[in-house]
Amino acid sequence: MFAFTSAGGAAATSVSPDAKEVSHTVSATLQTSGVADYWTPERMRSAIPGDVLAQKAVARGKSTARAAVEQGQSTRISGKAGKGKPSLHTDENPVPHIGKVFFTLGGVNYVCSGNSVASTNESTVSTAGHCLNEGPGAFATNFVFVPAYLNGAAPYGKWTARALYTTNQWSSGGDIQYDTGFAVVSPLNGQTLSDTVGASGVEFNASRGLSYKAFGYPAASPFDGQSLKACTGTAFDDTINPGGTTQGIPCDMTGGSSGGPWFIGSNSEGYQNSINSYGYGSRSTTMYGPYWGSVIQQAYNNASAN
Question: Which domain holds residue 21?
């Protein structure tokens, strides 16, 4: 998640189902040799929450008017079962298909959150666009996914990305409404990611205002990024900066939770339908996420088929 200053305005309008947006996906192929070994426990603990990567993009005010953002036909891709106090967040036990992502940009090591999602290649991880591309700018290197991370442990291993995908809207313009990316990871010990930890179903072009449970590994104060947290709530439009398609739920997770999955319903078994993207201020009580429409679906399709 990242923070940025607010600007007043009127209430947001609804998405037009007839509006269209050209869908372009941008990708990068990564070298994988030695990447898992690079991420020692010390480097993982010292990685910087990735929310700082998106602050410049949001400050530029790069966004597309809501009327121009597409809503296509509702699409669901079913998932696969895996093996095995007053607050806006809850403490959660590790979930096999949810984990942390670690990566390098500009010579600096960062950390976000991610989730294994259903895909043709059984090897696709969802995260925030700003957790794999500068938006606009370079793609990350040294990208690994560590499912069910807990206090430095990697019970299912470190899965090295061989390719990264995001929308052209994010990689070229830093448009926060398209802040989603997908990493394709290499097999580990002869097994695919989804065979090992399972994979969430995904849904695109869903109704607005749904109830969600969002997960992540917040690492910025007062959290330490060492365990999984979650927030629940009914989504509502961003009225602080209206005119976009992003939605928010009550949540106090901080940086490091970026890229963590939003599931429709009340648990981690629902269909994933967004990711943790941003909040307003260092003590935000709302987490916002992008609307998963046809453009983000195309980025998913391209990653899934790789």
Answer: 2-81+97-305
